[in-house]
């Protein structure tokens, strides 16, 4: 498959009074055309900043691209002007968020907002745009009469998320970024929304980058998973490999903290300790303060990503000399 989104050595730093926050600190990541990729990590690991960077939505300052590039379909995004961004955003890449109430405007009808979004990219009449909006709503399972005249507060949370997906998909973007799209929804609705996203992916070929803290969600719909910790990628693998054989101690910890319905009484494991203060990253491996397997070397030297075969990568010294070969991500950028 062709690479659609290519992030290489990308760094987004924030300059604050108290120092520099290296929210995203040199990540490499690819989403192929038509692929569904999960970007997973605890809150504060840099996954949301990564997604906002792809959308050009990080305010600069205080944000600053400290290095690297982001390419979408071959186009370098980090150097686009505000005008160029307007063409890319909504058209080539769209995004949906956790709480659609904050991205839908409460004072305008659904129809108003959809027609507006469509007409930003298509030179067509309001009547034509309305037709297009109704088709998009039907695609996400909303066909109720009069929906275009309703206001966001008249819809349930699940319906609002469907409307957001319809709006995001209406211009057939190449990439849809979904940041915790189901976190605010109850379990049944959550499953329906994930089904919907998978179906749209199959039917339209739009690739999806799913940002979540929930490995259960990515297991449902992703082809491949990238795990982030403290601003870096720590593991990457296709979904089956990752669930069968997670290799990074952090990923293993995340796996153990997935709630299991059949073992309801068992206490939920959570990884001890906290994510490091991004202004004072630990030297060596950033996970070392929380890692049960940490060795002296881990506190001194930063581990590279090791290639473990079959496209699986893991940033851990345990793989050194154990069949892991160093993956030098810095040679394939040119
Ligand atoms: Fe743990 Fe060391 Fe591997 Fe880091 S490099 S995850 S501290 S074993
Ligand atoms: Mg977030």
From TrEMBL:
Q: Which SMART domains match?
A: AAA
Q: Where would you find this protein in the cell? A: Cell membrane
Which GO cellular component terms, listed alphabetically, does the Swiss-Prot or TrEMBL entry include? Answer: plasma membrane
Where is this protein chiefly located?
membrane
The molecular function terms in GO held by this entry are: ATP binding; ATP hydrolysis activity
Q: Which SUPFAM superfamilies match?
A: P-loop containing nucleoside triphosphate hydrolases (SSF52540)
The biological process GO terms on file are: peptide transport
Per the UniProt entry, the signal peptide is none
Q: Keywords assigned by UniProt?
A: ATP-binding, Cell membrane, Membrane, Nucleotide-binding, Transport
Q: How does it sit in the membrane?
A: Peripheral membrane protein
> Which Pfam families does the record cross-reference, listed alphabetically?
ABC_tran, oligo_HPY
Q: Which ranges carry the ABC transporter domain?
A: 7-255
UniProt lists the family membership as follows: Belongs to the ABC transporter superfamily.
Q: Which protein is depicted?
A: Peptide/nickel transport system ATP-binding protein
Species this protein is from: Desmospora activa DSM 45169
